[in-house]
Design a protein that fits this description.
heterodimer, A: alpha/beta, B: about 100 residues, four-stranded parallel sheet, globular, protein-N(PI)-phosphohistidine-sugar phosphotransferase activity (chain B), PTS_EIIB_2 (chain B), transferase (chain B), PTS_EIIB-like_sf (chain B)
């Protein structure tokens, strides 16, 4: 993966820490509003991503802690992005792959794919990152958006070289 | 014993996580002496793929809409590294029963 590809996907302005959400629906509403305002997605994005989450949930148990990677089809996205949101309280998401399991994500990566296949490698590296206790703990602890941004970029860039 | 395995890989979009697991399943099968052919689809596409082709196994990261006559395995563990061994065991067990 090219370095500039990572830099264009992750944006400092799309990292939100300690946000309050009352429900999963509230989460998607608020996040979609930010993304629409900033011009990343069409105004149909909210319906699409909320619906997708009900059909194909994206909550994940990982070796560190629960995360979620909500995403939907490229047709609702103007510009590819990855938004990182850390809610003040975990939000309930159903588990990916089945209709029974529940997860309580503490960190959510909302992904706007443009050309799906091209962004596979970044998702693969995210999965590696989710298994890394040291950086994941840091993302939960830190209140410094800049530092989190730099760490994620650095991590994915290095993981990309290793891969 | 069947050596060439047709794998239908299913995720919500039919492109992203299904491609990731298709790649890994192909590698696992190769390492264990099988050839794999994979196709990706979304849950709504499963029915027509099944009626238009011959499939040996379904691996999925999105819940399936129904129960089909083809063994299906939840492959989310392949993405996250949670119980990857359990998945591999289940996969090899399923393909070893194919005729």
């Amino acid at each position: 993966m090219k370095e500039n590809e990572i830099n264009t996907l992750f944006k400092k302005e799309l990292i939100r820490l300690n946000e309050k959400f009352t429900s999963q629906e509230d989460f998607f509403k608020k996040v979609s509003k930010w993304l629409t305002k900033k011009g990343y997605v069409k105004d149909t994005f909210y319906q699409a991503i909320y619906h997708r989450e009900q059909e194909s949930p994206t909550g994940l148990h990982t070796p560190t802690f629960d995360v979620a990677i909500p995403h939907t089809d490229p047709e609702y996205v103007y510009e590819a992005f990855i938004a990182v949101i850390r809610p003040e309280q975990p939000i309930s998401f159903r588990e990916m792959g089945n209709l029974q399991g529940a997860t309580e994500p503490q960190l959510l990566f909302v992904i706007g794919f443009k050309e799906s296949k091209d962004q596979l490698s970044i998702l693969q590296n995210l999965m590696k990152m989710f298994q890394d206790q040291k950086v994941m703990d840091f993302y939960l602890r830190s209140n410094d958006t800049e530092e989190i941004y730099t760490t994620i970029n650095e991590y994915l860039r290095t993981a990309a070289y290793k891969a | 014993m069947k050596k060439s395995i047709n794998v239908l890989s299913v995720c919500g979009s039919g492109t992203v996580t299904s491609s990731m697991i298709a790649g890994k399943v192909t590698d696992i099968l190769k390492e264990n002496g099988y050839n794999a052919k994979t196709t990706e689809t979304n849950p709504n596409g499963v029915e027509s793929e099944l009626s238009n082709g011959s499939w040996d196994i379904i691996v999925h990261t999105s819940p399936l809409k129904s129960t089909y006559n083809v063994p299906s395995i939840n492959a989310v563990g392949l993405l996250t590294g949670m119980d990857e061994e359990g998945f591999i065991e289940e996969l090899l067990d399923a393909v070893s029963k194919l005729e």
